[in-house]
Write a structure and sequence with these properties.
Layout (H helix, E strand, L loop, with lengths): L1 E6 L4 H13 L3 E4 L10 H13 L5 E6 L3 H7 L7 E3 L3 H11 L3 E5 L5 H13 L6 H9 L2
Helix pairs in contact: 2-3, 4-5
InterPro entries: RpiB, RpiB_LacA_LacB, RpiB_LacA_LacB_sf
EC number: 5.3.1.6
Keywords: Isomerase
């Protein structure tokens, strides 16, 4: 799968680990920054990832910040993006099954790498269920 990944300074270390894990599992990953743990503004990187996914350059996006909330809010401002905040594997699967999420956001300060990996496994394995969920997803599009 072709994936864009980004973070802020709080998510930087976890992003590096997640990126390596994704590549080890056969995914093509574009790290859209930042490239150090110096303080940055999370909306800048959330926008980069979300816009690239919305343009169809990447199949999925992954974002990390301290709480996961900031990148989720920022990404959801981009038309065509359905960014979901995932804090466990079950939520990640539901984000795909019920919301057809195309960007998954993680709270780097409140989760661990193993939970993120398990969440990504579930997200990649899940499929959008359509049906009543498709009707609801249509209602959230601007």
């Amino acid at each position: 799968m072709n994936i864009a990944i980004g973070s802020d300074h709080a998510g930087y270390e976890m992003k590096k680990t997640v990126k390596s894990w994704l590549e080890e599992h056969g995914h093509a990953v574009n790290d859209m920054g930042p490239y150090s743990d110096e303080s940055v503004d999370y909306p800048d990187y959330a926008r980069k990832v979300a816009e690239a996914v919305a343009r169809g350059e990447y199949e999925q996006g992954i974002l990390l910040c301290g709480s996961g909330v900031g990148v989720s809010i920022s990404a959801n401002k981009i038309r065509g993006i359905r960014a979901a905040l995932a804090f466990n594997p079950e939520i990640a699967a539901l984000a795909r099954q019920h919301n057809n999420a195309n960007v998954l956001c993680f709270p780097a300060r409140f989760t661990d790498v193993e939970t993120v990996r398990a969440s990504l496994d579930n997200w990649f394995a899940a499929s959008f269920e359509g049906g009543r969920h498709a009707r609801r997803v249509e209602k959230i599009e601007p």
